[in-house]
Amino acid sequence: MTVLATAVVRRRVPLAAGACLLSFAVFWAVQRAADVSMIDLMVYRAEGGAVRAGADLYALRATDYDLPMTYPPFAALLFTPLTLLDPADMRTLATLGNLLLLVAFVRLSLRLVGVRGHARVETALWVSALAVWSEPVWTTLRYGQVNLLLAVLVLWDLTRRPGHRWAGVGIGIAAAVKLTPALFAVFLLVVGTVAAVRRGVWRPAVRHACVAAGAFLGATSVTAVVLPDDSRNFWTRVVFEAGRAGRTENTANQSVRGVLARLLHTPEPGVWWAAGAVVVCVAGLAVAVAAAVRGERAWGVAACAATALLVSPVSWSHHWVWCVPMALLLWTRAVSRGGAVRWAAAGGFAVTFCSYALWWVPHRPGRPELSQDFGQMTLSAVYPLAAGGFLAVAAATALGRTRGRTGTAPGRPVGRVKRWRRSRSA
Question: Which residue in 152, 252, 256, 286 has the fewest CB atoms around it within 10 Å?
């Protein structure tokens, strides 16, 4: 039965590959017709140029919008090869690279949730064909952002077998480029600590966290040697300038801080954000750790990602590419458990990130977000609301309030292969 199921899936892979290529081709044509600027990619190139010229990274203002450098200086080191490319060629290569990274990210997400073998190849192609049209992925490619690269680095780590000697390097490098992924190392450390208290088994998770910390410190130390002034400037001043990335109340800022700024009609929510971020961080990490300790590793990883996005001072909508593994988790839960409510939750979550609803509100110059009414506030908070709902489902899963598992344990197959193996007609 398994051989027959695998053969059927193999025959469907070319169809899925054709659909994926067609979707990507149409996407590419639409983006070119829209004359996307890939403005963040141009900023990255300018940062690489500043490194080569020995200029002050954090005095840099790039493009017609005078955008500053906001990442740690290690990122600028990685961007120096961009200066060797013609801007037109760079845009083409960046788009192609991001499309390939999307497929890799979906494939890793499917591995995380437990889809195995040829079913994972076929499903990855179908999901990629659809996911490219979601707002976070569309905007990532529109701006030429690095979100998919960082997400692949993190999931490359978290889908490896526990105790692998290189597990943790991806998280450390991602955190050295952009600080938000560092929360995954904290998550692993807490998981190891709780596991040690409950069962005395702590080594894999703690080792994973330590390797991540070592990779982060190694990359940061090398950068401090190469760029001492920029490193000192970032870690003593720039890292504390939360407003450097842009206006807090901007509708694209889908973090707790952005929601509070729009809710309170103020560009700086101050202590309200600090208190809210602490509460959300503690609650979100508690859900993530509880899920991981109880064997629901995929739910723990996705809950940690949702928490990191919520508590970050600025989480632009394109940072929310983590909606892909979250949606896949809800989908596998609906497949394995059934029920109209579960299917509605999975479908509603996916539609939220494909609806572009946050852009339905006024967001032109003049700071209209500071005078939103209730309906506009709701639309401009759709991602945090969706993440809150996802964390609630993850908490219910971790606490055993849903009967049975969702197929997220490592090595447990879900999806089409599982259904074929149970079929008498097969």
Answer: 286
